[in-house]
Amino acid sequence: MRAVILAAGEGTRMRPLTENKPKVMLPVANKPMLEYTILEAKAAGITDFLLIVGYRKEAITSYFGDGSRLGVNIEYVVQEKQNGTGHAFGMAAQACDDRFIALNGDVTVSSGHLKKLIGRNEDAIITVKEVSDPRAYGVIETDGARVTRIVEKSPEPPTNLANAGIYLFDPCIFDAIEKTPLSPRGEIEITDSLQYLIDGGRSVGYEVMDSDWLDIGRPWQLLTANELALKDLKPAIEGEVEPNATLKGPVSVGKGTLIRNGAYIVGPCIIGENCDIGPNCFIRASTSIGNNVHIGNAVEIKNSIVMNGTKIGHLSYVGDSVIGERCNFGAGTKIANLRLDEKTIPVTVNGKKTDSGRRKLGCIMGDDVHTGIGSLINVGTSIGPGAFIGPGELAKGEIKKGERLITR
Predict the structure, then answer these.
(1) Could you give the dihedral angle defined by the CA atoms of residues 381, 382, 384 and 385, in that order, rounded to the nearest 10 degrees?
(2) Which of 159, 194, 200, 371 has its CA 20 to 30 A from that of 256?
(3) pLDDT per residue as tens digits for the range 24-56
């Protein structure tokens, strides 16, 4: 059994985090989200993978290579232009002459669920998840064990069985893809190809997922995925922890990392390799810190993702935030994470405001951002790569890529 994984898209809704890397390479508990998908598939007995890559494909191919590091075999097909999910899966036609697992690289999946799919023998199986509010998803209608209709996002969904983006396909799907017309947005949608199979009398079934599922479509959903991943963290101390540092609960510390005296770290928490942490800092639960990160004196970090190479200067606070690579925080930088009225927090990207649904959310920060001493960042602020927040400035709303916020 082979797994075909879609990893070609940028993930425009994940900006500013995807300006320099594809969405599937964004880290969750210090691993790219795509790596979790591959490892779960491997645990289900799958060792052959075909990755459909495109946007910034080198980030994927250089990290995973031929897959030998993970004990699997990985091949690649390049989708030069993203023409929809059906078009992407169709690029696997030459490599798949038998049934195969088909996955989106940005959804969570368990090995147990994949084993259930492998045991089915219909022409196609759609994984679904029961959700409380299905309006944001495509859903299926059923008759017994068969799928009768696929309904894309609707204000009045006929069921609560959301399409989870995880499939088992017979090679007959490729013929269906070839005969699928373009959707109103000019793409070949895999759901339209599945409807073609249904209308043609093919057996299309479904499998309800009973494990955790998350469709990571917005930057703040990385925080939810990070919390889920850290639940299974196995503590390991490979770096140096000085005598007067305190580690409580499951904490993982990578090679070459120094945890200085007075640091207080509450798990689950993962800290990568070659980091310099402390002294006298407070790192709270559900925080992931990448490699080559410096956390200075009297810094507090809560429920956040801090990516490789970032430096957070002394007396700073980071709460419920996603911080990109190689950022540099001036001393006393503060990120707010709770509105005074305690309402949910909206985030603006490319001029479009979206309600995160989160009561606590700090900053979504791209790579290579610099903040000056005493700078303040308001709740839900989006900051593009290479931006500069001057000393004592208040950043709010959306700060564009490369923008320099200096008014004093």
Answers:
(1) 80
(2) 371
(3) 999 999 999 999 999 999 999 999 999 999 999
Which domains, ranges and CATH numbers included, belong to the chain? 2-217 (3.90.550.10), 234-405 (2.160.10.10)
- Give the active site residue among 87, 294, 314, 370: 314
- Among 36, 32, 35, which residue's Cα sits nearest to residue 21? 32
Q: Is 294 a catalytic residue?
A: no
- Residue tagged 């993930």 (tokens): 11
DSSP, residue by residue, 342-388: ----EEEETTEEEE---SB--EEE-TT-EE-TT-EE-TTEEE-TT-E
What predicted TM-score, i.e. pTM, was given to this entire model? 0.90
Q: Is the dihedral of CA 117, 189, 50, 202 positive or negative?
A: positive
Residue type at position 63:
Y
Q: DSSP character for 182? A: P
